[in-house]
Amino acid sequence: MTRTPVNVTVTGAAGQIGYALLFRIASGHLLGADVPVKLRLLEIPQGVKAAEGTAMELDDCAFPLLKGIDIFDDPNAAFAGANVGLLVGARPRTAGMERGDLLSANGGIFGPQGKAINDNAADDIRILVVGNPANTNALIAQNHAPDVPADRFTAMTRLDHNRAVAQLSKKLGVGVDDVKRLTIWGNHSATQYPDIFHAEVAGKNAAEAVADEKWLAEEFIPTVAKRGAAIIDARGASSAASAANAAIDHVFTWTNGTAEGDWTSAGVVSDGSYGVPEGLISSFPVTAKNGKFEIVQGLDINEFSRTRIDASVQELVEERDAVKQLGLI
Ligand SMILES: NC(=O)C1=CN([C@@H]2O[C@H](COP(=O)(O)OP(=O)(O)OC[C@H]3O[C@@H](n4cnc5c(N)ncnc54)[C@H](O)[C@@H]3O)[C@@H](O)[C@H]2O)C=CC1
Ligand SMILES: O=C([O-])CC(=O)C(=O)O
Questions:
Q1: Structure ipTM
Q2: Relative to the CA of 109, which of 48, 201, 225, 305 has its CA 20 to 30 Å away?
């Protein structure tokens, strides 16, 4: 049976994450090995030539699933008919830039992109925001797309989730696939909280298997939360291949579902669960089924976790209030 190709719009296509991401989308890792795709690349005018170079390389791979590549510098055109949008391009923080300047510069990107999605994307559009500050950029885009169901806008914390799984598996000397039900709560920032109290490792409770609160508080949590900065320090550039891999994992899970009895982490619109104010885009434990993320309900949150979740959510509240004050939402 011939399937209609899925239109995947990628912003920031000529950047380092774009370079690590596009080849995996085109080879079937984003949606599945039997799903043809058409790529729609969005760049700023200065980035278009480099995106054309990447498109030449994509052609040269002769990927059977890749049914077309178009390059744009206009978000309305780039999101026309999009079924999946990966919002990677963002304004990075540069020396001397205040937080408000960073939020406004990104508001100038994610507001218009949200509107372009609202006006032009396909009815089944699903958005993953990768560009930082990811949660708040997703909130801005979602606020500019009143006709799109809010739950189609998500922010990436899957990289944090994967980092936490890897650190825990090393500590316990087990395979990464033995780790289940780990959760990243809150913001994709240094305040995020990787929670192992509900996680299972080879069928045992992870916190009980670790049995070392000092390691948890002083090693595990800071290592995961500050991993982005450690990569920049070591590589001289921010994480790119691992970020692209996490974006692939996020969308693949969203569309193909979580395994029975397991969950993952994603920044999704809060429905007020776990005391996270409604409407914030915060990371939660989520399952995915029939193309929808659902927040896992009913977990007992202990004092250790409560303080840390609240601190990260408070940071999201402050970011939301700042973009509100700037008139960006
Ligand atoms: N959520 C997460 O876990 C992670 C997020 N990130 C973030 O992802 C973003 C991208 O990272 P890199 O690819 O390394 O950056 P990069 O600087 O290599 O590439 C960004 C690209 O976006 C383009 N761009 C800028 N404004 C644009 C706009 N308005 N429309 C379309 N394209 C635009 C630039 O021309 C550039 O080619 C950064 O904000 C970074 O902080 C990075 C790693 C992990
Ligand atoms: O700070 C950055 O740009 C990179 C980042 O988000 C991460 O690696 O988690």
A1: 0.99
A2: 225
